[in-house]
Amino acid sequence: MYDYKTLEFPKVLEILSKFTKTNYAKELIQNTCDSFSFNDALRLKKETEEAYLALVRLGDIPLGGLYEMKDSLKRCKAGSILNEAELLNVVGLLDCGVNVSKYFKNLETIKVEVENIKKYSDNVITPQALKTSITLAISPEGRINDNASRELFMVRRSLVSLENRLRSKLNELLSTKASMLTEALIVQRDGRMCLPVKIEYKNTFKGIVHDISSSNTTAYIEPESCLETANQIDSYTAEEKKQCQIILKNLSLLVSAEADNLLNNLENLTTLDVIYAKALMGKEYGYNSPKLEDKQYFNLKRAKHPLLNKETAVPIDCELGNKFSVIIITGPNTGGKTVALKTVGLLHLMVYNGMMVPASEDSIFGAFEDILADIGDEQSIEQSLSTFSSHMTKIVDILKRITFNSLVLLDELGSGTDPKEGSSLAISIIEYLKKSGARVICTTHYSELKNYAYRNEGISNASVEFNTETLLPTYRLLMGVPGKSNAIEIASRLGLNPSIVEDAKKELSNTSSESSELIGNLEEEMTSLRNQERELESKIKSYEAMVNNLKLEKLDLVKKTDKIIHDAKEEAKRIIEEAKEESSKLIEEIKNMSDENFKEHELIALKTKAKNLSVKDEVEEIFDEDLHVGDYVYVKTYEKYGTISSIKKDKYYVNLGQFAIEFKKNELSLAAKPVEKKKKEQRLSGYNPASHATLSLDLRGKRVEEVKELMDSYLDQCALGNLKQVSIIHGFGTGAVRKAVQEYLKTSPYVKSYRYGGEGEGLNGVTVVYLK
Predict the structure, then answer these.
(1) Residue 383 confidence (pLDDT) above 50
(2) Are residues 93 and 164 in the same domain?
């Protein structure tokens, strides 16, 4: 069980939902399971990593046409008849499955390993016979085609004939009875064709009065001579509806037979939507996929709270579960202690749900069945509880639920009561949690807990750094160093009477001189160690720069050598070609001059030997570079730089961005690693617009003002991908999007010509574009 709400996990899920394409995926995200399984967490993590790699190499997954139709399919399975729009949604689902299948085949072609997510595509079944039956019967506009059945064809042909006959009769009356009409116009009233007759002729004009104008000057009369034809039209119209209903019923029966497969398709495609949403979110925010290990230990590096501004949030490092099982964070308010607690808990929840996180990729996350938190000092108004009582109520619940596999996060432990009692109670609670085997991080103000941490093994002090010059927290988490409240120093800098400050210092010295001196000494030691660490880092960077310079010099020498070898090859080829040409001429002359005793086979052998003269194409490399783990190399086939992570026999695994990819030695060359002037938060990269060009752009549901921007981006990708023919899917609707598309195509420099789609291409709902 996890305290999702306390750790603000629902807010992270809201952000994730924005990267999905369907409401079903949003619902799936909101219904996240709160039970933990290491194998499930590892599976979700691998799925997101594969989706991220696919995004970088090929672009986003094509899930266009995935509509909300779960209820429709369930109704159809139960015997209901689907309407035209619902049946077209079935076609959309089938097309989506086909497009996703093609997407994964393309990934296979470019050798991107995605076996964990490909299974969802493999589970999608696309019965093409069902699609054919629906598309032959229903047009893209949602109208049942005349040829959907023989009966419907005959009924509609009769209807057209009758309607023409009726209009002919009415037009004749418009001419012969013009003096009796208010205007020469055919109007409809109550679904019948009528003529506007002057009110004074209402009783003399033979027919049925269906309506009278509000001014009482016109009577709308259906002529008597037209009644029989109009009645026949009504009869055939009813028959048309009947035949259409029969067609819809038959198609619904076909869908019902495949309903289980279609629901399965919907489930698998929705799962892919969620997986790709996680990858898209990670790519958008520059998150990483860290290590996840099956033990109660974690080591977070450069971790940030995902709900804070990523540019201003200060990263923290936090390790727990190896040398110590409890961390006690002390320091002043607003110092970031609570943020540190939430960051640890929230990032674990994100990893467990397969999400990438704002932390270094070499961070290690542990496996905890429970993450239990008491964070915040809100009073329970309904129960009339004080702050202390509210905290205690939550802690009692936590103590009932903990196991050796729990991570417990407690904010301001023991606060809200007498300091001596509160600190004693806090120490007892920590001891209980420690003995249970749980991992614990707590924050507190009490000095007694700092001393308690020093006296006991398995417990570490920590604090959030505070700048006494600016009187502001830096939010850096300092492991091993207890925090000071700095209240007296802050009061002094804010202008408190010096005599009061001095008295306060004396009083503090009398009451806690030993503890203060101990803490002060430790802080001095930690400051000295941090300075030494910075000096050592500076020397390491200087050494790395020297090594890189040497590598650059070596590379320059290799390039010069390669040029010399290349020039030598070319010169050798030229000389031998000249020699071959001269020898051929010489042989021809010898042949012409030879007498009858000259042996023909000797001449042939000599000529063959001359023609076979050549220079070796493969010259042994002067520099056969030895490559080692950790070397920075240039990958010739990808035209990218990376670091060798491992070597197995003749296989070299190179980290390109987030993932290790296998190469042969001849595909790699040693490169100089660029010197980092300033260490910045890194983002995964590798996006190549050309690799993202797909064969269609779906604009259905888009607004007219969005068309130009989407078309600009899409045709740029098509040009980079060297595509010659693409399809713009705009649907039918009002025709506004279609018009905007074609207006744009008239002015685009990429476009050679365009036309509407034909049979099987979407007809007027699609524009086929030919590119230059």
Answers:
(1) no
(2) no
Average pLDDT over residues 643-668: 82
Distance of CA 390 to CAs 328, 338, 395, 397, 413, Å? 21, 17, 9, 11, 12
The residues with which 97 forms a beta bridge, in sequence order, are none
Distance CA 373, CA 346 (A): 11
Residues 751 and 744: beta-carbon distance below 8 Å: no
What are the beta bridge partners of residue 316? 303
Token digits of residue 312: 């201003």
Rg (alpha carbons) of the chain, rounded to whole number: 40
Cα separation of 428 and 743, whole Å?
Answer: 76
pTM greater than 0.85:
no
CB 162, CB 154: distance < 8 Å: no
pLDDT at 613 over 60: no
Task: Tell me which residue range forms the domain holding 629.
Answer: 562-670
Let me know whether 162 and 76 are in one domain.
no
| Residues 401 and 329 grouped into a single domain | yes
Q: Tell me the residue type at 38.
A: F
CATH number of the domain within which 746 lies: 3.30.1370.110
Specify the pLDDT at position 386.
Answer: 58
Mapping DSSP onto H, E and C, the string for 412-428 reads CCCCCCCHHHHHHHHHH
Contacts 24+ apart (CB under 8 A), 138-141: 138/84, 138/87, 138/88, 138/251, 139/763, 140/88, 140/731, 140/732, 140/762, 140/763, 140/764, 140/765, 141/732, 141/765
| β-strand pairing of 406-410 with 370-374 | parallel
3-state DSSP assignment of residue 314:
coil
| Residue 670 CB neighbour total at 10 angstroms | 18
Q: Based on the structure, what is the number of domains in the chain?
A: 5
CA distance 12 to 541: 37
pLDDT digits (tens, 9 = 90+) for 428-438: 999 999 999 99
pLDDT average, residue stretch 507-511: 64
471, 415: one domain? yes
Per-residue CA distances from 116 to 63, 119, 259, 282, 703 (Å): 18, 6, 26, 18, 36
- Kindly report the number of other CB atoms within 10 A of residue 527's CB atom: 11
Same-domain status, 335 and 451: yes
Comparing 401 with 568, the larger pLDDT belongs to 401
Q: What residues contact 490, with CB distance under 8 A and at least 6 apart?
A: 468, 471
CA-closest candidate to residue 398, choices 388, 387, 410: 410
Task: Give the separation between CA 203 and CA 206, rounded to whole angstroms.
Answer: 7
> What is the reported pLDDT for 378?
45
Q: What is the pLDDT of residues 231-253, one digit of tens each?
A: 999 999 999 999 999 999 999 99
pLDDT digit string, tens, across residues 183-233:
999 999 988 999 999 999 998 999 999 999 999 999 999 999 999 999 999
By the 8 A CB rule, do 245 and 84 touch?
A: no
Three-state SS sequence of 433-482: HHHHCCEEEEEECCHHHHHHHHHCCCEEEEEEEEECCCCEEEEEEEECCC
252-266 pLDDT, tens digit each: 999 999 999 999 999
Beta strands in 326-378 (DSSP E): 326-330, 364-365, 370-374
Q: By C-alpha distance, which of 4, 65, 765, 82 is closest to 349? A: 4
Burial class (CB within 10 angstroms; exposed 0-12, middle 13-18, buried 19+) of 118: buried
Mark whether 276 and 349 lie in a shared domain: no
State which of 470, 488, 506 marks the end of a domain: 488
Check residue 607 and give its pLDDT.
Answer: 53
Amino acid 303 reads A
Instruction: List, in sequence order, every beta strand (DSSP E) within 27-136.
Output: none
Identify the residue whose tokens are 């924050």: 443
**Is 295's pLDDT higher than 50?**
yes
Whether 553 maps to a domain, the answer reads no
Binding-site residues, in ranges, read: 331-338
Residue 545 lies in a domain: no
> In 3-state terms, what secondary structure has residue 633?
strand
Binding-site residues for ATP sit at 331-338
